[in-house]
Amino acid sequence: MKLLDDEVVRGVRHRGLLLDVGGRAVPGALWSPPEPPEPGSPLVLIGHGASGSRYQGYVRRLGRSLAAEFSIAAAAIDGPVHGARREDGGRDGRRAFLDFAAMWSSDAQMTDRMVEDWRATLDALLDLPGVRGPVGYWGLSMGTILGLPFVAADERVEAAVLGLMGATGPTAERIMSDAVRVRCPVAFLVQWSDELFPKETAFELFEALGSPDKTLHANPGPHGGVPDREFAWSARYLASRLS
Description:
Rossmann fold; globular
């Protein structure tokens, strides 16, 4: 893993990441406290949504909040056909969304590759001075489509925030199968009028989660209308679980 652009901005240390995973260039970002606690910071991995990137607004805000308020390191990587994995650097979010939808429908290996990318990222980050775990995961919508299988596959993840996804879509069978294998505590977010993943399918996915410790928060509004208070609450949730 290469570390890039090491700087401290408003009390948070930011570093760019670049990993080679099976010949794939995986771009990432890491936010951490400038002076991590001893023997090191917990770590939260953040999965962005379709059309976004490792640097989209809520990902950056969440990463900075975890580092500044809770002394937790936070990292994000670009998903398939997003961000710096695209020739345009991710400037056309609509095109990235459409390309992801097409890949989700046609590439049976996409999920497994992203699980590999996350596991390789986690391996590399836990080798950094000042980062020790425990490990959490945060990802909604595409962050759940590709993140829930990772949480199911890697026992190092000790708490997760998931949601804006249901028992539907091209990989619904895979998602539901993996959901049963999720055993860590989970907070699950639902939008009552979600136009992409209707609440009934989200409730079905929540019910399938194998975790004996799971919480569901439902809010009014469409897919992209998650209230700011839920981002703040979910950061506190992970901080409490990883402390």
